[in-house]
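Appendix B: complex inputs.
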Amino acid sequence: MTVEIFPISNFPLVRRGDNIIKLIVNSLEKSKLVLKNGDIAVITEKIVAKAEGRVYTLSNIKPGSKALKIAEITDKEPRLVELILRETENILYLGEGFLLVNTNQGFVCANAGVDMSNVGENRAKLLPENPDRSAEQIRKALEDMFKIRMGVIIADSFGRSFRAGSVGVAIGCSGVEALQDRRGERDLFGEELKVTRVAMADNIASMANAVMGEGSEGIAAVVIRGLDVLGEGSAGDLKRDIEKDVAFKCLKERYNYKNREV
Amino acid sequence: MTVEIFPISNFPLVRRGDNIIKLIVNSLEKSKLVLKNGDIAVITEKIVAKAEGRVYTLSNIKPGSKALKIAEITDKEPRLVELILRETENILYLGEGFLLVNTNQGFVCANAGVDMSNVGENRAKLLPENPDRSAEQIRKALEDMFKIRMGVIIADSFGRSFRAGSVGVAIGCSGVEALQDRRGERDLFGEELKVTRVAMADNIASMANAVMGEGSEGIAAVVIRGLDVLGEGSAGDLKRDIEKDVAFKCLKERYNYKNREV
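Resulting structure:
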């Protein structure tokens, strides 16, 4: 019944066009780790995005007039704002040093996940374009190679409302029951459960985040063994019907950046 | 470098006045688990709250006029609303079936964490009154008994803004660097980190939540071994300066339940 988490710490620096599956398999071999049935590989979005060519040199980006305005409001680099806007479906809030947005992929996060760390000077990295698709591709390739059934989660860390600090979140997921629906299940006394939907993929991404760190540790993936959570599911299941989200609605109606000049 | 999570699954039903430390030690013994230096015990708030006598029989509760009004708006049982209001510092939002509140302890969550599952019919359970203090008492007792240094986290699961489902959160913490401050640290290229504050205690609570489940499994605690996160810290560190939280401010200013008749 013990759950084990194996850090995969020997990834090379990843570049555009690298075969992410080969890199993962090489690193597993160096770690002498053989994947088993039921394992979950949690991979930082950083290496997926880099391999997919989502890194841009800022000096090549030309900020538009909206980016220039928002750069002034937020006191951010206009080229960086331009990249953030390209990734943005809705702006929810503009603050000092950050934009809170709903991304094209449907994630509510700061700066659309555009990130200047771990990519080198004067460069910025966007989130993978379709992390659920990336997770599925990686899962299928690893399943074929190891002749097993497994799950793959692509993880980032997001800040959140109401609590300090960032936690791990699943932005891509395949082969894992991402959102467990426990409606109708009963507690120890036979009563209905309070919590009926568990964001299992986010719990697992947080688990990995606790082990991976954010900085120069270079732990780009972990393998989790002993959790019984394989099933159908994608990170898309964790996107809320945002029109029903009270904080989202409140911010959207209050600031309404979409329908007016910023 | 492997991290291990040991579920402690043989807890008895906990009652008011039970010695929670004895129960933990008994369950560890039955699991043949000896605590080691650096371990973290994550304990569900349910058993802590029960031992502390935070369970109420609803038929003994007399709802006040405010509770009656809010019960009508939210379509909830008036006695349950009365208990929720006693635990509430600010109401942020009233919706169908729930109140989003800031609790007396400073947590933003649905229904002030008041919960009717796993306590028996016609009864409701509040959160521990001071979970950081409870975590510290448990940590000190276990440290003395096992002659080690360790961490203790008291975990609940909360829904959150912008994403579906609930995740584990640390509502009490002792002996763990709950909020890691990484400002000034550098990435693989020597650049500053994007994410500078990691909610490590919440990541660990989510880790435990993935293993514990919510229902009749009866896993009331886990022991995590191999994470290097001992230090000073409390769950209080994870409370945000809420006046700086954009969603909190927006909801408070919009609905302003405090300063008007509900």
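The longest strand of chain B covers residues 88-95.
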